[in-house]
Amino acid sequence: MATVALTAENFDEVTGKDGIVLVDFWASWCGPCVRFAPTYERSSEKHEGITFGKVDTEAEQALAAKFDIRSIPTIMAVRDGVIVFSQPGALPESALENLIEQVEKLDMDEVRQQLAAHSH
Q1: Neighbouring residues of 22: CB distance < 8 A, sequence distance ≥ 6
Q2: Catalytic residue among 4, 30, 82, 95
Q3: For the chain, which residues make up each domain, given as ranges?
Q4: What b/e sequence results for 52-86 when a residue is b if at least 16 CB atoms lie within 10 Å of its CB, and e otherwise?
Q5: Is 33 a catalytic site residue?
Q6: pLDDT over 90 for what percent of the chain?
Q7: Among the CATH numbers 3.40.30.10, 3.40.718.10, 2.60.40.650, 3.30.43.10, which is that of 4-118?
């Protein structure tokens, strides 16, 4: 599956449904972002069931601000509408694959319980 351009208009819709969505916050002037793009693309072709989104932080400054993105690339993982991971820095392919495995193994009932406990 190819990557999906995420915008302020479609972000909530794409990340709000069940399943896993990875989000790559990037910009065309960012060297590490450009070097990371082929790794991200290859991973998107390996994992049919996962949505791989990309947010161009230049075009979508409001979206970058909403998630307090200060350093790019930043990789975010969303599962069943819940942000379960967010970290700046380009990941090597093995680390990206490892992240995907970890997100797939998450017990989302447990994650929701932890979130509920922290929000009080």
Answers
A1: 40, 43, 50, 51, 52, 53, 75, 76, 77, 78, 99, 100
A2: 30
A3: 4-118
A4: bbbbbbeebeebbeebebeebbbbbbbbbeeebee
A5: yes
A6: 92
A7: 3.40.30.10
- Please state, rounded to an integer, the average pLDDT across all residues of the chain: 95
The mean per-residue pLDDT over the stretch 94-102 comes to 97
39 is catalytic: no
Q: For residue range 17-71, what is the model confidence (pLDDT) as tens digits?
A: 999 999 999 999 999 999 999 999 999 999 999 999 999 999 999 999 999 999 9
Q: Considering 20, 21, 23, 33, which one is annotated as catalytic? A: 33
Q: Report residue 84 as tokens.
A: 């379960």
**What local confidence, expressed as pLDDT, does residue 118 receive?**
83
Instruction: Judge contact between 73 and 24, C-beta under 8 A.
Output: yes
DSSP label of 92:
P
